[in-house]
Amino acid sequence: MAVMTAVTGCKAEEVKGSSGAEPTGAKGAALSAVDSLDVKGRAPKTGYSRERFGSAWADTDSNSCDTRDDILKRDLKEVKFSGGKCKVTFGVLEPDPYSGKTVTYRRGRSLVDIDHVVALSDAWQKGAKYWDSSKRIALANDPLNLIAVDASTNRGKGDGDTASWVPPATKYRCTYVAAQVAVKKKYDLWVTSAEKSAMKKILTSCPAQKLPAGGNPTNAPSRFRAR
């Protein structure tokens, strides 16, 4: 997929970051953080599977709710539950950050995905294949790396990095790229030279964009296992 370089309309957004916490750091922290990332070529995808990052939506923060429901609760409006305060059955994504449209979530026939901002396959090819399972499980369930989005828009992303995919909604691109930088910095994942250039191109258009922070520890509790 060709790199998307149109960044008109992109601006620094004073909104909550992917972690649910207010973005922190000095002015322009996201742009400056790009230079702290190691640059290497993409490693082969050999050996990758979703199971290498543990079972989906593990409750690594031990709040008795799975990770998917945690993110739905955080990102949706008008949330309704079934059987307590964990199982989200309804909510509204208004607006969807990737497309800008309003999307309704209904459990069992959802139009909403929980996206890994840094795709797990991309992470595998840029360092995660060399980690122990605890760190991979942590990445897969870290709120800093997760966001509720329109499913149809998200399916076009695949395992793309900033060099090959950015959200169609131009106003969200700076926030999105800053989140990718934050996750890659937190987990010591590298970037390709094309990816670094694309990150800097977008973030240069919003030099005040801050770097999101927070999320979970970079190692999951020992009770969780992965292949």
From TrEMBL:
GO molecular function: endonuclease activity
Keywords on record: Endonuclease, Hydrolase, Nuclease
Keyword Zinc-finger (UniProt): no
Location of the GmrSD restriction endonucleases C-terminal domain: 66-201
UniProt key word Hydrolase: yes
InterPro entries found in the cross-reference section: GmrSD_C
Recorded superkingdom: Bacteria
Protein name per its UniProtKB record: HNH endonuclease
